[in-house]
TrEMBL record:
The keyword Membrane applies. NCBIfam families: OMP_RagA_SusC, SusC_RagA_signa. One of its GO terms (cellular component) is cell outer membrane. InterPro entries: Beta-barrel_TonB_sf (IPR036942), CarboxyPept-like_regulatory (IPR008969), Plug_dom (IPR012910), Plug_dom_sf (IPR037066), TonB-dep_OMP_SusC/RagA (IPR023996), TonB-dep_OMP_SusC/RagA_CS (IPR023997), TonB-dep_rcpt-like (IPR039426). Residues 1-23 form the signal peptide. This is TonB-linked outer membrane protein, SusC/RagA family. The keyword Transmembrane applies. Keywords: Cell outer membrane, Membrane, Signal, Transmembrane, Transmembrane beta strand, Transport. Belongs to the TonB-dependent receptor family. It is found in: Cell outer membrane. Residues 119-240 form the TonB-dependent receptor plug domain. It comes from Aquiflexum balticum DSM 16537. It holds the Pfam family Plug.
Length: 1075
């Protein structure tokens, strides 16, 4: 229909020129600036007249003009209009630039329904597919950072295939998942995280978004609020992200596109540690003792993570390997250990089709090596799609997306013994990490022929871990990289097919079927000879997940005079299966032969679950004169995981939008567009898993034998998931989230300046929390509907085009959002709920009634009644009697600034991402202080700035038992300063709370498109090259030694840092060619 209208408009415009006599003929071609593709149907008008033509299917035009002073106006939906003076030119080729303010007159919304953007009663943002293919991310969710108001993206510091945390308008569930639902071409996609680090360590297993191919994405649309997502019901409480993939296009012959992206990756080293003092300890009395360096092999081992020694620069010291070396700064260990990663992506697309059918095929291959030695991530994507029509009334669409991911050696994080980042951080300034390489054939292992007398007290032998410190948990980073292994392979198929039959011109019936299926095979190896696990162990696991959705819609659209009615009803059936198999083995029989059947003790596990949702839904939209729109939707879900008596819930929404710029003709000419919108909606969430509301029996592998002496598994009572301590609660209901939203969208000066403002208020009720019960019941807790939480905030988007010329344009957008969160209520009688903690175990992420989601609670320094700091007589801080709220990891403001400039055939873009507010507890800086590596630990050392403390010290006790304080002011001796910094780490956690604000140069691209006049003589239809970069610089931050984005987990416990992997910067080039 769109092409037909363009052709008709072309005939109408050409007919206007008949019968007139002109002095000059101008010809030319119109293309898109981004990719050089020809644009058919572009309006070419002589300014000040109604005379003009439309470009043909190849973008060509031919127009008679009156002379050199004639000005041609080129306009096209979705692109910025351009004016060109004819002069003495007979050929005028124009490259048109996309205009964000004009794009999306029709947009894809919930359930894949296309709607007029004027009718939307809620805020939504669409990001074009080209944003994902220039400067790439393995996890495309990270590309949303700084681009969408109200979307907070946390890039987890966990390696090249790590997960991402995306939160839209704040957290809605206290203990459940808070990330949005991802929908690809109408089919929900599983974005499960396959494991994440916690207090004791672990690794980030990645999530589903790493399987999505950027080259397949046409657009990504964020449905932020409840009204936008209400038609998805229970799965949309956290918002919805719609991904629309590319389709074939009608064209002459076969279209071919090739893209090569090659980037190099380096760690973004933020460390600024002291290099004045070396390995050693403070020995003797705090007042009369002194700092000493290692002089024996044993001391070299024992003091391997202590930098409290003497001043560097003179003499020698002994090391763990028995070698005496100069006692000097050893240089940069980061660049010694971490490598330059390389990622090469090659993408080939074939497309074509005619009037009745189009097709597209894509093959993309990604090969990458990590900055971590012996690690990497490879991915292959294959996609095929076709769409078309049978006759005039039946249309079809079918797609298959396949991906295979292979991740080698995921890094260990947090307090994992194999965390190489922590091992390198812990080295004193005079120790070279390469001294621990060990056997060149088995890096990190003890060198052949090493004198056993030089080994540590653990008495390890040849081919075992070459420890650099006298602590089996202090891993050699080379052993971690080359001998330990956490790897996985994942195959995924996402397929969908749809049919639509237009029963009449106003009534249609459509159906869609889709499946998301994946299998993941993982392995985790701790080899024999590992310092903390001499016998070694391994785990192998396989998980198969499938989800099938069937959907049908009956729709109606008709105009009655000034009114239009657009309505539909439908139903959806979802079924999901999840199967897992695991095998664990401990202790290898044959050294270095790594197989489960070579282990001494073996355990096997099997799990299976199945659940589903049945749904019905409907929507009705009534518009008046295309400027007043009223919309209502409703959805009802039935859940198999809940008791039949309580397993259904209804989600309604109502909204209105009023385009006042179309309603009133007397508005000033500088107002190009104006719309008011408002909505109210409810969505829900179910956080319980299959079988959690009923008592079930499990077969547990207990050590028992039958009458014949054979090993058997014994049946024992347990609830689902093996949690025998929780009482099942059949009365559980879904979480319910209610939201109101209002907003205004205005544009000025021919759409060159725009403002979109949104206010929302959301409350979630009936959250599902674990409540403690009497132990006399035989259980410890039960799930109940109790929690309540509220979010309210504003979102602002400013867009502008400061310059718009025929050969030069500059577009800029600025977005900023503020979300205020409050935990309204928890479990009766318990106003605190622990969420997470770091390895220091001195702070907790907690939910507290009346406080924001996930506050940081920890010990602080005690104060006297009049507010003075309390010290011990030796100057050490005294710990407070109770934990206090010392921070919150959620930022106050998030936003971004995006600039895009086009000059002739050159283009430039820059994205700055920022966060303001929010706190970060840095366990990394705490440990660095205790180890004597942090620069603040210089204060009080011999020859450095004195450390003076001032406050009060307890002098006694009054008759009522309360402490009596007296003034205290003391300059600490080096020994007392050593103790002070150690006790600060143990007792005063707010000292290590930092402002988490930052601004980053998130993306930078500089490109050039070869002009068409040159390509006409070549096989190419388009050819462009660009230089690209991601995460190039931190423009502003307030935390030392680490990146503010150093979180090691994508879970709800945000605001914690404990030796997350260094963030990286990437830079390289992108080549795009079309044939």
């Amino acid at each position: 229909m769109k092409n037909l209208l363009l052709i008709i408009s072309g005939f109408v415009l050409m007919s206007m020129t008949m019968g007139q006599t002109w002095a000059q003929t101008v010809t030319g071609k119109v293309t898109a600036a981004t990719d050089g593709i020809s644009l058919p149907g572009v309006s070419v008008i002589i300014k000040g007249t109604s005379t003009g033509v439309a470009t043909d299917l190849d973008g060509n035009y031919n127009l008679n003009v009156s002379g050199p002073e004639t000005v041609l106006v080129f306009s096209y939906i979705g692109f910025a209009s351009q004016e060109v003076r004819v002069g003495n030119q007979s050929v005028i080729n124009v490259s048109m630039v996309e205009d964000a303010s004009e794009l999306g007159e029709v947009v894809v919304t919930a359930l894949g329904i296309e709607r007029n953007i004027k009718a939307l009663q809620y805020s939504m943002t669409t990001v074009g597919g080209e944003e994902f293919t220039q400067a790439r991310e393995n996890n495309i969710a990270n590309q949303l950072a700084g681009r969408v108001a109200g979307v907070n993206v946390t890039n987890v510091a966990s390696g090249p295939a790590g997960s991402s945390r995306v939160i839209i308008r704040g957290n809605t569930s206290l203990q459940g998942n808070n990330q949005p639902l991802y929908v690809i071409d109408g089919i929900p996609m599983d974005n499960t995280n396959f494991g994440q680090a916690g207090v004791w360590g672990g690794s980030d297993g990645g999530d589903g978004m790493t399987s999505v191919n950027p080259d397949d994405i046409e657009s990504m649309t964020v449905l932020k609020g409840a009204s936008a997502a209400a038609l998805y019901g229970a799965r949309a409480a956290n918002g919805v992200i719609l991904i629309t993939t590319k389709r074939g296009t009608k064209r002459k012959g076969l279209g071919i596109e090739f893209n090569n992206n090659t980037v190099f990756e380096r760690i973004n080293n933020q460390t600024d540690l002291q290099t004045t003092f070396g390995a050693g300890r403070f020995q003797g009395d705090q007042l009369t003792g002194a700092a000493v360096r290692p002089t024996t092999v044993r001391q070299g081992y024992d003091w391997g993570t202590q930098a409290w020694g003497e001043r560097l620069g003179t003499g020698t010291s002994m090391h763990f390997d028995g070698v005496e070396r100069p006692y000097v700064h050893a240089g940069d260990n980061w660049n010694r250990f971490y490598e330059t990663g390389v990622a090469v992506t090659n993408s080939l697309s074939l497309m074509g089709g005619g009037e009745n059918q189009t097709f597209r095929f894509n093959l993309t291959d990604l090969r990458s090596t990590s900055v971590v030695p012996n690690a990497g991530f490879d991915r292959i994507n294959i996609s095929m799609s076709t769409n078309g029509k049978f006759g005039k009334r039946l249309t079809f669409d079918a797609k298959v997306l396949y991906s295979r991911e292979e991740t080698k050696n995921r890094p260990r994080l947090s307090d994992s013994p194999g965390n190489a980042f922590q091992s390198i951080f812990a080295l004193p300034p005079n120790v070279n990490v390469e001294w621990g390489k060990g056997d060149p054939n088995r890096l990190g292992t003890i060198p052949v022929g090493t004198d056993p007398a030089l080994l540590n007290t653990w008495g390890f032998a040849e081919r075992e871990e070459y420890l650099m410190v006298n602590n089996p948990w202090g891993q050699n980073p080379y052993f971690s990289a080359y001998q330990l292994s956490i790897s996985d392979i994942r195959d995924r198929i996402l397929t969908s097919g749809s049919l639509r039959y237009d029963i009449t011109d106003h009534l249609y019936l459509s159906g869609r079927a889709g499946m998301d299926w994946f299998t993941r095979r993982g392995s985790n190896l701790t080899p024999q000879g590992t310092g903390y696990n001499r016998g070694g162990d391994m785990n192998e696991n396989t998980r198969n997940v499938s989800e099938v959705n069937l959907e049908g819609i009956l729709g109606y659209n008709r105009t009655f005079g000034d009114f239009n009615v657009n309505a539909f009803v439908g139903a959806n059936r979802m079924r999901r299966q999840d199967e897992s198999i695991s095998a664990n083995g401990q202790g290898f029989n044959v050294p270095f032969f790594h197989a489960i059947n070579n282990t001494v003790t073996r355990n096997f596990g099997y799990g299976f679950s199945e659940w589903g949702i049945n749904s019905i839904f409907g929507s009705a939209e009534v518009s008046y004169k295309n400027y007043l729109f009223l919309t209502g939707t409703v959805r009802k879900d039935w859940f198999s995981v809940l008791d039949p008596e309580f397993n259904s819930i209804t989600y309604p929404s109502v909204g209105a939008s009023f385009v006042f710029s179309d309603a009133f003709n007397s508005l000033p000419s500088w107002l190009s567009f104006g719309k008011l919108r408002a909505s109210w909606a409810q969505v829900g969430n179910v956080t319980v898993g299959p079988y959690q509301i009923a008592n079930v029996y499990s077969l547990l592998g207990a050590p028992a034998v039958d009458f014949n002496g054979n090993n058997v598994a014994m049946a024992s009572f347990a609830t689902a998931g093996g949690n025998a301590g929780t009482i099942p609660n059949r009365f559980l209901r879904p979480l319910l989230s209610t939201e109101i939203e209002t907003g205004i969208d205005v544009r000025f000066l021919d759409n060159r300046l725009g403002l979109d403002f949104t206010y929302y208020r959301q409350r979630s009720t009936d959250d599902q929390l674990n409540a403690q019960v009497s132990r006399s019941s035989g259980f410890g807790s039960t799930l109940v509907n109790l929690g309540q939480m509220e979010n309210r905030g504003v979102e602002i988007l400013l867009t502008g085009t400061p310059i718009r010329k025929s050969e030069f344009s500059w577009d800029v957008s600025f977005n900023i959002a503020r979300n205020v969160n409050e935990v309204v209520s928890l479990i009766e009688g318990n106003d605190i709920l622990n969420v997470e903690e770091p390895r220091t175990r001195t702070v907790f992420i907690q939910h507290r009634t009346g406080q924001p989601f996930g506050v940081i609670a920890g010990w602080v320094q005690k104060r006297s009644p009049d507010g003075q700091l309390v010290f011990e007589p030796n100057g050490a801080p005294v710990q407070s009697d109770m934990m206090e709220v010392i921070g919150n990891g959620i930022p106050d403001w998030t936003g971004g600034i995006n600039n895009s400039i086009t000059w002739k055939n050159f283009n430039f873009s820059a994205l700055v991402d920022f966060r303001i507010g929010g706190d970060l507890y840095s366990g990394t800086n705490l440990r660095l202080t205790q180890w004597g590596l942090h620069k603040q630990s210089l204060q009080g050392r011999l020859g450095e700035e004195p450390l003076t403390v001032s406050g009060v010290v307890q002098a006694g006790t009054s008759s009522d038992g309360s402490p009596v304080y007296e003034a205290f002011n003391k300059t600490l001796s080096p020994g007392e300063a050593n103790n002070y910094w150690n006790q600060m780490g143990n007792r005063v956690q707010d000292h290590f709370i930092y402002d988490g604000s930052f601004a980053k140069l998130r993306q930078l691209t500089i490109g050039y498109n070869v002009p068409r006049r040159i390509l006409d003589k070549t096989p190419f239809t388009t050819l462009g090259i660009s230089f690209v970069g991601r995460n190039l610089a931190i423009l502003w931050k307030n935390v030392e030694n680490i990146d503010p984005e150093s979180a090691y987990s994508s879970g709800n416990g945000q605001g914690l840092d404990y030796f997350g992997m260094p963030q990286t910067r990437t830079y390289g080039f992108n080549i795009r060619a079309g044939f």
